Amino acid sequence: MPSEQTRRIPDMSETATIAFIGLGIMGSPMAVNLAKSGHHVIGYSRREASASRLIEAGGTRAESIHEAVQDADIVITMLPDSPEVIDVALGSSGIFDSAKRGALFIDMSSIAPSASRTIADEAIKRGIAALDAPVSGGEQGAIDGKLSIMVGGSAENFERALPYLQSVGTTVVHVGGAGAGQTVKVANQLIVAGNLQVLAEALVFLEAQGVDTQAGLQVLSGGLAGSTVMTRKGESMISRSFKPGFRIALHDKDLKNFAVAAHESETATPVGTLLAELFASAKAEGDGDLDHSAMFRHVERLSGSEQG
């Protein structure tokens, strides 16, 4: 018989019971896609209204974390930062207190790599399998089920999780042991932040020079400067439409996690340090709840050209 730690998770031809903790901008569409794949998804969020889309897709809402996870084969979290994940996983009546031995815990939040390693160590003690599996692709990627997912943990646990992760993402890659997924994610956030910042500076520059920015964006997108960030965020910068898909406050948090991890590995990150300061400044100036494309506003302010 398989051990409790490696108890078989139902494959995609069967219905698994999945607890999904955190039904925000990203978590809600991810939970919906899992429900649409035929699984019994039990969602939990402190805000009852957050579960509405999951319920419409055939899922249910639990009144507590304990209720959500006690009979789950798989438990997924999608929460803002390390303290929330640690509290939900390790706290009294939390996931590890309530889940069955052998359950598979997948944290898809973006948190500090060191926090993921701490959680993974505790999971082993509790007889629970654990992976860190942060995502990239934003709200639209979550809605479309086309996220990029970087996974840390054992190869065995990755294979168990893969069919379920493929319900929410199209690029799912095992990148190493516990914490490796979060390490790749903070590197991802560094690259995205750099792209956002230089795109914002370029567009503010083009406006100041009297260039048609729509035409400029079109030709830049077709050349070597083109990028996913330019395609997805350029128009919102030009139109100054900053409804949050991924908030500046969350990107600021990710860059702080990157800075800590870089310090631990004694890695020189001069551009990363500057980006962290710029995003922190934008947050401090009141833009934290706007989409991270609102770094355009920060460049405008620095240039003395911000529109009302």
Please give a structural write-up.
- The protein is of the alpha/beta class and 308 residues long.
- The protein contains 14 helices and nine strands.
- The chain has helices at residues 27-36, 52-56, 65-69, 82-90, 95-98, 113-126, 138-144, 155-165, 180-208, 213-221, 228-239, 248-264, 270-287, 295-303; strands at residues 17-21, 40-44, 60-61, 74-77, 104-107, 129-132, 135-136, 147-152, 169-176.
- It has a six-stranded parallel β-sheet with strand order 3-2-1-4-5-6, with helices on both faces. A three-stranded mixed β-sheet has the order 7-8-9.
- Strand 1 (17-21), helix 1 (27-36) and strand 2 form a beta-alpha-beta unit.
- Helix 1 (27-36) packs parallel to helix 7.
Low-confidence spans: 1-7
Strand content: 5-15%
Oligomer: single chain
- Secondary-structure element series: EHEHEHEHHEHEEHEHEHHHHHH
Furnish the topology, listing elements before pairings.
Blueprint: E1 17-21, H1 27-36, E2 40-44, H2 52-56, E3 60-61, H3 65-69, E4 74-77, H4 82-90, H5 95-98, E5 104-107, H6 113-126, E6 129-132, E7 135-136, H7 138-144, E8 147-152, H8 155-165, E9 169-176, H9 180-208, H10 213-221, H11 228-239, H12 248-264, H13 270-287, H14 295-303
Parallel strand pairs: 1-2, 1-4, 2-3, 4-5, 5-6, 8-9
Antiparallel strand pairs: 7-8
Helix pairs in contact: 1-7, 4-6, 9-11, 9-12, 9-13, 9-14, 10-11, 12-13
In short:
The protein has 308 residues and is α/β, with parallel strands linked by helices. Helices cover 52% and strands 13% of the residues. The protein has helices at 27-36, 52-56, 65-69, 82-90, 95-98, 113-126, 138-144, 155-165, 180-208, 213-221, 228-239, 248-264, 270-287, 295-303, and strands at residues 17-21, 40-44, 60-61, 74-77, 104-107, 129-132, 135-136, 147-152, 169-176.
